[in-house]
Amino acid sequence: MILRTLCSVLTMAVCFSLIPVKRLTPAPALRPDEQVAKQIRDRGLTDLDAYAMLTELTGTIGGRLSGSPQAAAAVEWGRQTMLKLGFQNVHLEPVMVPHWVRGAVEQGMVWGPNSGTALTLNLCALGGSVGTPEAGVEGEVIEVHSLKEAGELGDRARGKILFYNRPMDPTLVNTFAAYGGAVDQRFAGASVAARVGAVAVMVRSMSLAIDNVPHTGAMGYEAGVPQIPAVAISTQDANQLSELVKADKTGRARIKLSCQTLPDVESANVVGELVGSEKPNEVIVMGGHLDSWDKGVGAHDDGAGVTQSLEALGLLKRLGMTPKRTIRVVLFMNEENGGRGAAAYAAKHLVGKETTIAGMESDSGGFAPHGFGVTATPRVYRRIQGWSSLLQPLEADRLTPGGGEADIEPLGAKGVPLIGLQPESQRYFDYHHSIKDTLDKVNPRELEIGAIAMATLAFQIAQHGL
Amino acid sequence: MILRTLCSVLTMAVCFSLIPVKRLTPAPALRPDEQVAKQIRDRGLTDLDAYAMLTELTGTIGGRLSGSPQAAAAVEWGRQTMLKLGFQNVHLEPVMVPHWVRGAVEQGMVWGPNSGTALTLNLCALGGSVGTPEAGVEGEVIEVHSLKEAGELGDRARGKILFYNRPMDPTLVNTFAAYGGAVDQRFAGASVAARVGAVAVMVRSMSLAIDNVPHTGAMGYEAGVPQIPAVAISTQDANQLSELVKADKTGRARIKLSCQTLPDVESANVVGELVGSEKPNEVIVMGGHLDSWDKGVGAHDDGAGVTQSLEALGLLKRLGMTPKRTIRVVLFMNEENGGRGAAAYAAKHLVGKETTIAGMESDSGGFAPHGFGVTATPRVYRRIQGWSSLLQPLEADRLTPGGGEADIEPLGAKGVPLIGLQPESQRYFDYHHSIKDTLDKVNPRELEIGAIAMATLAFQIAQHGL
Questions:
Q1: Contacts of residue A170 in chain B, CB cutoff 8 Å?
Q2: Is the ipTM of this complex over 0.90?
């Protein structure tokens, strides 16, 4: 595009006369709350500090799965960063976390004994999977599209490798809904398959992009059911494998994994705050999770939420805006494969003299925000809606019922209103839990606008209560 | 994130019991208009044909500046594509267009005779610029921040090279507003500088990204003023040059360009439609521009608008939805440096028996749409607002006053309501008019959602009128 007043079809003389030298309309006077929102916005968009922090976190530490040396480094980075930003009461809250390691071996291939076709798979172990014997696991492949279909195989599944291949529903505009509709295969597919005697499972990656990148993610084993290896394969491989087993019913696969679960490790949530000047015991919790999967560097998931939370409170601090109620940033540990940090925080802080008046979270990527999802009583929902005009200049004023992910869920279970940042969702699962979740997928301004939206809303809650 | 019902803090038994096997709540019954919108949405998100067309246009033709062989190839591609899609009355409407060519030589350097520093510039000619003598143009550099400041230099500018370095305002959330506030330097900087005796101008690229990529774009010469060479330099170079001339007031630059303007060439708008079953003479125009700058492949600007328009009408055709009023796709020629196609279309079609009831355009990039900008009477605006609930499932229901860019502006000047797709704007100017405007910056679903929004709204207008 060119600016339409700038010419194209006008004569050059008219065109030159149209060039704006300065704004002629004086800006309308702002209400005090609007003035505050504008100060936060102007400063944030000028500094873009969330991106600077994300560059540091992803560049110096990278992926940081619970229990890893990188996760420990991220905890120390979080603490140091909070101190640099001038937060108060900066401290660690220890928590024991699971320690699963991927290992060096991740291999798989499929072939059709009758058709003569073969395919080396782009795969990775799902987080929490057991490894295979050194020789691997081999079996005939059966494609299924749901847990129900897998369970109904009965004895036909014995000794086989089940291939879960139900894609995310592309007709759902919100990709989180599409993810929610498919991820049961990844999480529970192994135990459902093991109950009917399968020896391993392969799961189509949770992504709408068709490419050669496998996406990991949490899986769990049901108590009392044999634990069998579970891998994700790329969407392109899933499409090809589906063709292969259609063409040759005797199609077989072999998988080798050296992943394992080691003893729990001590880690920590990282906590810092600006203490409320009038009601210090009323606390707004604002956070993201510090751990990430090991495949990428956790830029969107959830380096974005971590650095947006730090920047949101950092902005208020830089601007000298003292909240009347306490705003506390919590960088949660172990969201991806255990939720231990979230549970520990709730267990420690939902008792005693302080009251958690809201939980705010960013864990849906660092894309341009559309607004917030809110889980609250109708009264509180309307109260938050009353501040949405302050988010309108950010184009982030879309409030929808239902919000908050795993890290603040334990607070919500005790009646705390939950507020989740909702960014544009189309690109998120293209990168999620894979080697593609890297800094270059994040736009500095989109990330910052999320931080500004969080700071704007958190400050209103701090000043006026809920 | 992991899906929060999926476990983390719950026991495994509870967790497994929560896995949704199927949806239990029946979907509410849809009104007929909602049913139509859902059909368009489901089909579009399943096929993703806009992206397939964009892959073809950018991959087989690439950049396509007016008058170039690539622009001619794009015209033929547009015609063939419309025929394949089954549009009616597919034809070309000839128009003479300017033919500016960049040439092989684009060089520049700056140095400080006193400080001893030097910098090779990442630059490109602005579109329409005259070239330099073979030896180049050399002069002392004066940094300015506005046309006014340049004009007020008076005799001090004689023989100098003016360096326009006012950045796009980062505090404006909408980047089109930031562009509009800075682009006067690019468009008119040369003539303002020439009036006070300058020999060339360098303009900071119109981008909020700080990198080494120059961004071209249209400039014009005022009649009766000497025509001097004009280049864009990258934002990083602009920052460095500013430091250089602060440190050494005698800082000089030399620029060499071999660009030139050749005689006008015949080209064409590409036109095709679905004829209205009840009121064929009432026409909704829907389009984007087929020409692009030569530096990238015009993926976002405006391959996006071209393929979204084709796909919007293509979707209606595939679904067998015959509009009551005619919906016409126009692929405009020469938006970037002349607007000849837009002027020719308006001159031809605003007379005679047909009535243009709305002009709809996509020329702001292929990112996830927020909604539409609408330039219309309050009555028509409210009428369009009445259909916005159909855009809500796309998260594209944000209507704002003021819409439509250069290609439908001549229709708007005659009172036709203008409707412009408004996508998320943060990334647009990072790529705009530069080598970075390539296919990999486009997300297939984001692009398609724009096409679906256009099809949805255009079909409502076609059925119900405005």
A1: 45-46, 48, 445
A2: yes
